[in-house]
Structure formats: C-alpha cells, structure tokens
Amino acid sequence: MAKSHTQFACQQCGAVYKNWTGRCNKCGAWSSLIQQFDEDSREEKSAVGRGQSSGKTLDFVSIKDLEISDAKERLSTGFKDFDTVLGGGILLGSVSLLAGQPGIGKSTLLMQICATIAETHKVLYISGEESAGQVKLRAIRLGAEADNLKFASSTSANDIAKTIESGEFDLIIVDSIQTLTLAEISSAPGGISQVTNCGNLIIRAAKTSGTAVIIVGHVTKEGTLAGPKVLEHLVDVVMNFEGDRYGGFKIIRAIKNRFGSTSEAAIFEMSEQGLSEVENPSASLLSERQNTDGSIILATLEGTRPILVEIQALATPTNFGYPKRTTSGFDLNRLNLLVAVIERRTKLKLGDKDIFLNVVGGLNIKDSAADLAICLAIASAVAGRKLAEDFVVFGEVGLGGEVRSVFRPDQRIAEAKKLGFTHAIGPATARDPFVIPVKDLRQTLIEYVNE
C-alpha cells in the first residue's frame, strides 16, 4: 500500500502545510488549518501514469455541425424584475447561488418563489439551518401552503443529491450550502473541502436530472461570498442580495449569469406580507425630500433601470487637526478623490471641514455618473446654498475637473421628465434640450449653486 502522509490545509485559502500552525501565513486566518491525508508522491506519479494509459481519444465534430437544442422551460418566480435578473426565469436544470447578509430576506424571498411555482410545479424546500416549525410559521405568514410544496430538513449532501437525481421535483431550494456535509469528507461544515465537494455533487445531480436548484450562500464580514471561489465558477447564476436589513430598499443583482445579462437589478421592499417589488422607486425615494443646502437629486441607474435618488451632504468645521470623511451608500475612497478634485480645481477649501455624505433610501451607489451630484452636494453644503428645486444632476468628474459622458443618458432624462423635473445638469455629450451641458466642475459650481 502507498504510504500516507499527514498535511494541513487552510479552510479559507486552501494553502497546504506540512505541520499545523495557529495562523495561515498566506491569508492570515487563525485556527483555519485542518488535518488531511495525502498519498505518497510516488503513488501520485503512478496514478498519473495509469490515467494516461487508460484514457481514450475523444469523439469530436466540426463546430459548424453542432445543433442548438430547443430552449428549455423557464419557471416564473412571480416577480417580473427578478425573472429579468435571471434572464427570463429559472431555467430547468440550472443551478443558482443566492448570497446576502443574515436577516436581509433570502429565506423569505425563496419561500415566496416556492409558493408561486408550486401552483403549477413540484417544489421541495430543504433547510439545514431551521427546524420544520420555523419554516412552517414563515410559510403560513407568506401564504405558501400549496400541496405541491414539500419540505425536508437535512444537512447530508449525499441524501440531497440523491433526492435531486430522482427527478421528482422541478425546483429544489437548498438552504444553505455552508451547513452541508459530505459523508466521505471528515472536515467541518463550511470548510473549503466540504463546500467544494458538496457543490460539485449537487450540480452534477441537477444537470443529470434536469432539476432547477437554488442554493443559499453565506457572506463574510466584508460582504463577499463565504467559501471557495470555485463555487461561483461551478454554478450557472450568482446573485447578490444587497441593502440594509433593518429597512430601506433591497436590491438583487446577478454578478454571474450564463443565461442572461449581469446588468439587471430587482428592487424590493420588506413588509409583514413579505418582499414586494418596487414599481416606482424614484417617487418613493423623493416623497419626503426637503430642498435644503447639501441636497441634490441624482439620476442614476440600477442595472438598466433609471432611478432618481437624493444625495445629502453636510459640512461642519472640524474640531481636530484631521478632517473627518464619512459616507453611507457611497465608496469612501471615491469621496476622498472627489474632495481632492474640488480642492485642487476650484476655490473651495475643504481641509478644515468634516464632510458627511448620505444616499437616501439605503441604496449603495456605484455609478460613476454620481460624481457631479456628489461634488455639487458638497459645494452646496459648504456654501450654505441650494440648487434649484427642479434640477437633476448626472455626470462623471475626471481628475482634471472635467465633466465626462455617462452610460445611457437618455434613460436618466426620461425618468426625470416623468417625475416633473424641468432641467438636468449633465455632460455636453448628452444632446437633449432638457440637459444644460457643462464641461468644467469649477464653472458648474459657480453658475448653478445659487441662493
């Protein structure tokens, strides 16, 4: 028999060590090394040799002779925008991964989807985190009590894969991948080995049986998907559930989609009856707005959907030698960059000001077109002056203070017109009479931040 050697693998990054250490030198994680056994390198070489001799030449055809199979059936989730994020609905035989902060509403959303699909198809909800009683209470609250909706409680990836392979169900929910264990692996649930192999087993079963599977994934403190990156490569669709779990809008984005675009987004809000899609988020976000200094309306995009959102800035004299910069819903590094551009390219001095920035409604703005609105909001707060009430703003700001073009200006303009705004301040490339073209940040601040 081949001699076995003991080795230790980090469950966070996969680094391998000959001896156990309390801290992984590669990723810095503490107490993450798990003992594993590895066959002698001579056996590995013989295994490679055996594999080389046992292989056979693949059958191949010309790519122009390949046939395109008919489109498979898609299951509608009952949420129009969520179907769009998925590329038209849940494709049979696909495996989707949904990740988000704890308590944001992943289980609630999936139970609502199960209730809709179970009206016409067989659905199985598998929970490895909650008891049957907890799931039953949620199902009663959301009205998910169809005869076609079944429930099972299990943390065995072997049993779940066998159930998927049976082909009895059209859709199976697995909540969550971090709680599953494979009997053949001795490591704890949530480790790299368990997540990778459990994911592989479930995906193989789904492809074989043609069953659609949605897997729930956990996230780290930084907001990234917990576990190995290979899990994201294995599945067909990766969705991120963003937002404030205590209130505000919640957004689902696809960061990977083999069946559709990754530029779409679905916007939800939570109530006692569960999650509901927001038909007109712009009107909801602006309903309580007061036109004061530091308040600017930004025309942005969530996926391909235009949204008007209020940007609020507050500037106060700093009490210490180092000014404070705080932001909610916007990247702090980008804010510091824009503050530096304002100081260098205009006459505003912000070195003695604490600056606080807020995006109303709990949205997290990553659109570069927010730059001009951020700069105008800061200038308005510092000067104690306000922009005219019927103006919206969009435009990217370069390091030279120039205002640059943005993506899809026509959709931003159409949304502003729909809500009764009369003008927009934007880049000169947006050729529309509705837009007042600007080329330079300094001239923009001089002309449009009025009493």
Account of the protein in words:
This protein is of the alpha/beta class and 451 residues long. It has three domains: 4-45; 74-279, Rossmann fold, CATH 3.40.50.300; 283-448, Ribosomal Protein S5, domain 2. The protein is built from twelve helices and 23 strands. It has helices at residues 41-54, 80-85, 106-117, 132-142, 157-165, 192-209, 230-234, 281-286, 332-345, 371-383, 409-418, 441-448; strands at 4-10, 16-17, 33-39, 74-75, 90-91, 95-100, 123-127, 149-153, 171-175, 212-217, 237-243, 250-257, 265-271, 274-277, 295-302, 305-317, 325-328, 353-359, 391-393, 396-397, 403-404, 423-427, 435-438. The strands form six sheets. It has a nine-stranded mixed beta sheet with strand order 8-7-9-10-6-11-12-13-14. Strands 15-16-18-17 form a four-stranded mixed beta sheet. The protein has a three-stranded antiparallel beta sheet with strand order 2-1-3. A hairpin with a 2-residue loop joins strand 15 (295-302) and strand 16 (305-317). The longest helix has 18 residues, at 192-209.
Characteristics of this structure?
single chain; 451 residues; alpha/beta; Rossmann fold; Ribosomal Protein S5, domain 2; 3 domains; nine-stranded mixed sheet; four-stranded mixed sheet; 12 helices; 23 strands; 27% strand
